[in-house]
């Protein structure tokens, strides 16, 4: 079993990485393989709704989104981390997630998902709410912890001093490992995955 952790911060080893790395260590202790994927600092275009991905299976903008897609499809679970920028998720991870999920063609459904937010002070709950919606519209069970998945600090060193935040990250890893093992046990016991129905679209303006 493998969990893909997506670092939505432009800083490779900053506060968001520190939080994700704590989750990864907790997963590793439970025998779960992990990979932290760095979104990076290069500009990421937003989704333009062109529909090209429906034909080609990948986004028309050939950047880190297409690089990440095979990893996301292979993983059993996805955790996305973001710093707080102006009381919401970073612009880069917002564009990244929009395009990743839009171009996935439903391939990410029923994988486990979780979001981690990192802030100096505030905006974490809005960030968690914003990014979690990518999972809850995609048939992806969302994993929680002993508190909302957030850490506080302006440097990695300060984040490490947020003992409650670090405990939240550790617990998140344990909870996700437990759910992954439960799903695996269910498969071995013959529990079938939900059958996906054809989507019904209802427009409210006639």
UniProtKB/TrEMBL annotation:
It comes from Intestinibacter bartlettii. Residues 1-153 form the NADPH-dependent FMN reductase-like domain. GO terms for molecular function: oxidoreductase activity. PANTHER family: NAD(P)H-DEPENDENT FMN-CONTAINING OXIDOREDUCTASE YWQN-RELATED. Its EC number is 1.3.99.24. Keywords: Flavoprotein, FMN, Oxidoreductase. Pfam families: FMN_red. This is 2-amino-4-deoxychorismate dehydrogenase. The lineage of its organism: Bacteria, Bacillati, Bacillota, Clostridia, Peptostreptococcales. The gene is sgcG. Gene3D superfamilies: 3.40.50.360. InterPro entries: Flavoprotein-like_sf, FMN_Rdtase-like_dom, ISF_SsuE-like. The keyword Oxidoreductase applies.
């Amino acid at each position: 079993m493998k969990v893909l952790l997506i670092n939505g911060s432009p800083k490779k080893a900053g506060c968001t990485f520190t939080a994700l790395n704590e989750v990864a260590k907790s997963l590793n202790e439970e025998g779960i393989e992990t990979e932290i994927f760095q979104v990076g600092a290069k500009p990421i275009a937003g989704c333009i709704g062109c529909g090209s991905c429906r034909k080609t299976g990948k986004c028309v903008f050939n950047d880190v989104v297409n690089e990440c897609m095979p990893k996301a499809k292979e993983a059993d679970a996805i955790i996305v981390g973001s710093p707080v920028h102006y009381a919401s998720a970073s612009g880069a991870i917002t564009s990244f997630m929009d395009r990743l999920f839009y171009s996935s063609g439903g391939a990410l459904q029923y994988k486990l998902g979780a979001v981690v937010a990192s802030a100096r002070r505030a905006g974490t709950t809005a960030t968690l709410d914003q990014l979690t919606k990518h999972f809850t519209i995609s048939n992806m069970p969302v994993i929680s912890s002993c508190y909302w998945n957030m850490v506080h600090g302006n440097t990695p060193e300060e984040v490490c001093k947020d003992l409650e935040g670090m405990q939240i990250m550790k617990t998140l890893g344990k909870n996700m490992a437990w759910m992954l093992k439960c799903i695996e046990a269910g498969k071995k016991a013959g529990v079938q995955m939900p059958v996906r129905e054809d989507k019904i679209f209802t427009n409210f303006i006639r």
